[in-house]
Amino acid sequence: MKNQENRNKNSITCENLPSFLSSFVDTFVDFTVTDGLFLPNTLPQNAPETPPPMAAHYPSPDRLIAIGDLHGDLEKSRQAFRLAGLIDGSDRWTGGSTTVVQVGDVLDRGGEEIKILYLLEKLKREAEKNGGKVLTLHGNHEIMNVEFDFRFVTEKGLKEFENWGFWYGAGNKMKSLCVGLDKPRDLFDGVPLFFKGVDAKYWNGIRSRMAALRPSGPIAERFLSKNVTILVVGESVFVHGGLLKEHVEYGLERINEEVRDWINGLSGSRAPWYCKGRDAVVWLRKFSDDYKKCDCSLLEHALATIPGAKRMIMGHTIQDLGINDICDGKAIRIDVGMSKGCGDGLPEVLEIFGNKELRVLTSNPLYQNKNKDYLDAYRKEGLVFLKPEQGPRQVEVKA
Length: 399
Description:
Helix 2 packs antiparallel against helix 6 (155-176). The N and C termini lie far apart (72 Å). The protein has helices at 2-10, 18-33, 74-83, 113-129, 140-146, 155-176, 203-213, 218-222, 245-250, 252-263, 296-304, 372-377; strands at 57-58, 63-67, 99-102, 133-136, 230-233, 236-239, 311-314, 324-326, 331-333, 348-353, 357-362, 385-386, 393-395, 397-398. It contains twelve helices and 14 strands. The chain is an alpha/beta fold and 399 residues long.
């Protein structure tokens, strides 16, 4: 009898190892919805009553890579990371101590949004182990989706979320059978059953997307809440749309923390004021929409309120000319519309070495054999740029 009791104590069961089982189920669900990506789950811990501060400032690294909007295109996302030598053919981190900033808009326009979120999280963990960093920002499309604005969702995007919802629900059913685990929250609690005027074949995808991305939803809390809204790395300010003086005066860390708290379900269903409207940090186009009308004075006023800031790097607005700068290098626009869902542009990324040398790494064949003498003719001390006859300047390219 005693031997039987000892065997029961030493065996792995729901009763004596509920946290282990929960982690196993979560890993199984991850593996299934990502077609084979292992993202180990840490064992559940009690969350602190007060969330930790959310940094907005990082020191300048030796090498900094900035990547624009990804919009649900997993293969183009991989190409952008490989272009900078950050991952190998198996998506393993090879960037060493490089710091990477992705400026938001992972969601919408494509069908592999969840897979990109998982890939970015995987690379964050791998980079950290190697002395590097992968830092992600909110774009306007992340904010829109948390508010249930699904105007730019694709049919494939809904299918991906429907598949996630099925397996996440299956995982919850497994956990509910286990003595010792708290009963999981109903994923679809409070989510409408149907949507008037919408084809019924999309209802399950919409319901899953709402459940996943609403404030405190599993995908929102697990992935989006780790994004920042504004980031300063060395001399470079990163923001999806643009930054105005009033945003800086309100407080960069304050903005980051308030958006995080909203996504975690701590402050209502509506996004904070600085995420709404044409002058919002994720919507502003004053420095990226039209180079002829760029308000350099407004940009300089914003930068002047951030000690040491020399340039603003932003996505949001597709640049048909590729990554380029305006206002004497104070504004750099890096959204090249690489996703098949919004232009199918050739991947480009911005590379910065120690705040001094800026260049574009590009897959554009037009630059594969560009004449070096032509480059030298437009070279100036400090930042290195190409200067076309008309329009904004393009940062020096390297194929």
